[in-house]
Amino acid sequence: MEHGEIRRLMIFAPPRHGKSELVSRRFPAWYLGRHPARQFISASYSADLAGDFGRDVRNVVASRGFAALFPGIGLAEDSTARNRWHTNQGGSYVAAGVGTAITGRGADILNIDDPVKDRQAAESTAIRDATWNWFTSTAYTRLMPGGAIVLTMTRWHQDDLAGRLLAEQAAGGERWDVLSLPALDADGAALWPEAYDTEVLGRIRTAIGERDWAALYMQAPRPAEGAIFKVEQIGILDAVPAGYGPMVRAWDLAATRATGTRDPDSTVGLLLKRLPDKRLVVVDVVRLRGGPDEVERAIVSTARQDGWGVRISLPQDPGQAGRAQIAYLTRQLQGFQVDASPESGDKVTRAMPVASQANTGNLSLVRAGWNRALLDELAAFPGGSHDDQVDALSRAFALLGQQTYDLMALVGKDPHGYGLRFMTEAVMASSPTRWWR
To answer: What separation in angstroms does the CA of 160 have from each of 25, 47, 164, 208?
Structure first.
């Protein structure tokens, strides 16, 4: 990073293994010794911790050892504050807590060390969202041209700051170099045996449990025990594999616009395809929050984009109002294949069939920006704050399992024969021996 060869770096290491000593105490001082006119911003989960780092770096820069290594470079005469000081060459160091304002300051290096305090903070969707918003809207905007970011942390959660950035990378975002240092390597050797040998690590593992061990010490966070979907079994594909197969766009409709709610439910339309070998691929996810007119326009426009060959599944709420809504939407979708039926059973029961497919590696997603939100919701289900996408996935899978090929009906609805040809080839590809039907 100091040479400019790496611009985005993540370092994952277990607690008490010296990562902050190297990254947040020694590296800033050394970097400013090499580049005394540049600007360095260092952030941590609290302003107090960031200030402690700032004091330590300041003291290193003021030390005799530093002066011996970097003659003529030191603190400016008026630099005494621990959280904001300058070098005598015009460079600067600023310490800040994650979530606090750092406007008016630039960064040739933005160092973020442990943005998450503890498990309670890591489990909070609100805190994870606030950390993400601070990073994207405040911290990132402080970068100077060519500036670099180093994110050093112990992994707490799949959806922590590092997890979101890696998901953005997978969807085509910025590329990161990742140095992940598990407490035990693949051969069972300890990372720092002089301090934490295998016996000590074994006692730690027993004391804290498997989930925290996987996250904090092995840098492999995973959902809480009891999660229905094993998201690590879900693959990411660059494109939909070749081969015909039926597709369903299933919708989960938010009841209202939910004004005044911090994080209201969304209307979700999920497009699921079954490949000839029975594997499943989520091709697309549409999410929106809006009133009935906005939802209607989204459903109709999405149907036109998907085309006639995609079957549409709509949930029907009980009662006269639910029947009236579905009747209206069905009229707006005239010419498309529409299935409308009420939900049956609880959400977990409905999700179990597709979860069993996901957990055996039979479910994949097409790489896209919506991947992270879907995987996060699947990982948190049924304990998460939202399940709109899970409901849509469950509904799509249920309809695919029931779907048959009524060729005479296809001829009547599709005089040009496009749908007939598509569905005929799909049947022959998936099960030639049943073609006589």
So the answer is: 23, 19, 6, 20
